[in-house]
Amino acid sequence: EVDSIIQKLLKTYQKELRITKDVDSERVETFKEYISLLKSDLTLNNKKIKAINTSDKKLLDKVFLAFNSECQKLNAITYDDMIYLPAKFFEKDTSMISKANGLYSHIIIDEYQDINQVQQHFLRCLVGDNTTVMAVGDVDQTIYQWRGSTPYYMLEGFKKDFKNVSRYQLS
User: Fold this and answer.
1) What is the percent of the chain where pLDDT is above 70?
2) What share of the chain is helix, strand, coil (3-state, %, to 5)?
3) Cβ contact 108:134 at 8 Å
4) What is residue 155's DSSP assignment?
């Protein structure tokens, strides 16, 4: 369904913007990856996206908004939306963070090396004063850069965002 929505939107907006590239499966996949990257960073400031040409950037802006609108109409969410939508909710209504961050006494994150900006933001919203957080990961195994993950949160961000951090090396 995602592919067909993106294909339809690409055809519509490429015509409007007078872009003549074929809307083939490779182009659909590229824009699907762009949408995933945009949903990995609440600031919409992803460096990989900045590298695309101006006409594709204009096209992406239109496709991104229309794609989200289409999914909302269909009451459908993507895998990326499972974190993106609640994170956007907390960003929009910060008063809800205080209600959410007392819900869990313990949070354990595995594969923490693959966390992205929106996931880290969501995690910060869930962690309260009495929440213990444990993250497990290996920075040498970061494999999800294509969807915005970065080892930064494991190397530096965790100790900046959470208090009383202890680090344990596992061999």
Assistant:
1) 95
2) 60, 5, 35
3) yes
4) I
Residues with Cβ within 8 Å of residue 40, at least 6 apart in sequence: 46, 80, 84, 116, 117, 118, 119, 147, 148, 149
116: helix, strand or coil: coil
pTM of the model: 0.85
Instruction: Please name the residues in contact with 37: beta carbons below 8 A apart, sequence gap of 6 or more.
Output: 46, 48, 49, 146, 147, 148
Q: Are 167 and 155 in contact (CB under 8 A)?
A: no
Taken in order 40, 44, 49, 50, the sign of the CA dihedral is negative
Q: Report the pLDDT value the prediction gives residue 170, as an integer from 0 to 100.
A: 80
> Using CA atoms, how far apart are residues 90 and 167, in angstroms rounded to an integer?
29
- Among candidate residues 25, 21, 22, 44, the one with its CA nearest the CA of residue 34: 44
The full 3-state SS of 10-64, as one line of letters, equals: HHHHHHHCCCCCCCCHHHHHHHHHHHHHHCCCCCCCCHHHHCCCHHHHHHHHHHH
Residues paired with 133 in a beta bridge? 107
Burial bucket for residue 67 (CB in 10 Å: 0-12, 13-18, 19+): buried
